[in-house]
Specification:
With 273 residues, the protein is of the alpha+beta class. 35% of the residues lie in helices and 23% in strands. The protein has helices at 16-22, 27-35, 56-68, 73-80, 85-125, 149-152, 213-226; strands spanning 43-44, 50-51, 133-137, 140-146, 163-169, 175-185, 196-199, 202-210, 235-242, 254-260. The strands form 2 sheets. It has an 8-stranded antiparallel sheet with strand order 3-8-10-9-5-6-4-7. The longest helix is centred in the middle third of the chain and has 41 residues, at 85-125.
């Protein structure tokens, strides 16, 4: 029998190990292709060992090529049933389009995770102070997703960006959720984005809050009560920094609360101090 790194070209047939060695795959892989009906042995010896003709090298070469190109086992099965060049060419063209879409999806996934990591990196590099302060915030944007989680979750941007929740303060001081958006911060919106809302550069009462989403209502109401001397907008915003997508303990969620100050002339000198 030939050594593992050699082939005896005088042999009429090849063993599993010999045919596997040619393309640097494992014997288990060859047996797997047999099980899936892609690479069927020509005979079985008296010892029940699989034997492959030399022509099966071409079949295995095609399988290895298609696997390297990203074809699934089912894709390969479909491809190997084609019997003319035009059909194989068309199949490859369609598969190229699928790969392009897969590549776009991968890039989008990388962007989602990079944005999450960026927020977490910023958080870890700074102390998370929950004290309220006045600060002039730059122009910010968000994509309006809907009135609540049920309507917003169907939007393609729901998972792509941090969420920003809009809260409204009623005449009697009660706080209720009024909308949900995908927070772009200072970044430009995607080309296909609709319902892009702009928050202008403005003086805001801002603070970080650590706790569950339900507790955000109480914290916002507390900010209005403690800072009743400020002409605060009845609309408040809470941007998710650490949310349910990356943190399992709801008591560790962190949101950045932003409440615009309506008459800034009197208070602008206090901002950013």
């Amino acid at each position: 029998m030939a050594k593992a790194h050699e082939l005896d070209y005088n042999l009429p047939q090849l063993t599993v190990g010999e045919i596997a060695h040619v393309f640097g795959v494992s014997e288990q892989t060859v047996r797997f292709y047999h099980k899936k009906g892609l690479l069927v042995p020509d005979t079985r010896g008296d010892n029940a060992y699989r034997k492959y003709s030399w022509n099966k090298l071409s079949v295995l070469a095609q399988i290895c090529f298609l696997r390297r190109a990203g074809f699934s086992i089912e894709d390969i099965k479909s491809y190997m049933q084609l019997d003319n060049l035009q059909d194989t060419h068309n199949y490859m063209e369609k598969f190229i389009e699928k790969l392009r879409q897969d590549a776009a999806d991968i890039q989008r996934a990388i962007g989602i995770l990079e944005r999450k990591c960026s927020y977490l990196d910023t958080l870890q590099s700074q102390s998370v102070s929950e004290a309220a302060r006045l600060a002039t915030l730059p122009l910010r944007r968000y994509i309006y997703l809907g009135e609540n989680d049920l309507t917003a979750a169907n939007n393609e941007y729901f998972f792509d960006y941090p969420l920003i929740t809009t809260y409204a303060r009623s005449e009697d001081g009660l706080i209720h959720k009024s909308g949900l958006g995908a927070y772009l911060d200072t970044n430009a919106p995607p080309d296909d984005a609709e319902d892009v809302c702009v928050l202008p550069q403005q003086l805001c009462l801002v603070c970080n809050f650590r706790g569950s989403y339900d507790a955000v209502y109480t914290r916002i109401a507390e900010l209005y009560r403690k800072h009743a001397n400020l002409p605060l907008s009845r609309t408040a915003y809470a941007v998710n920094v650490v949310d349910h997508l990356v943190e399992n303990n709801q008591n560790n969620y962190i949101v950045n609360i932003q409440i615009p100050v309506l008459d800034t002339q009197q208070y602008s000198t206090k901002a950013d101090q």
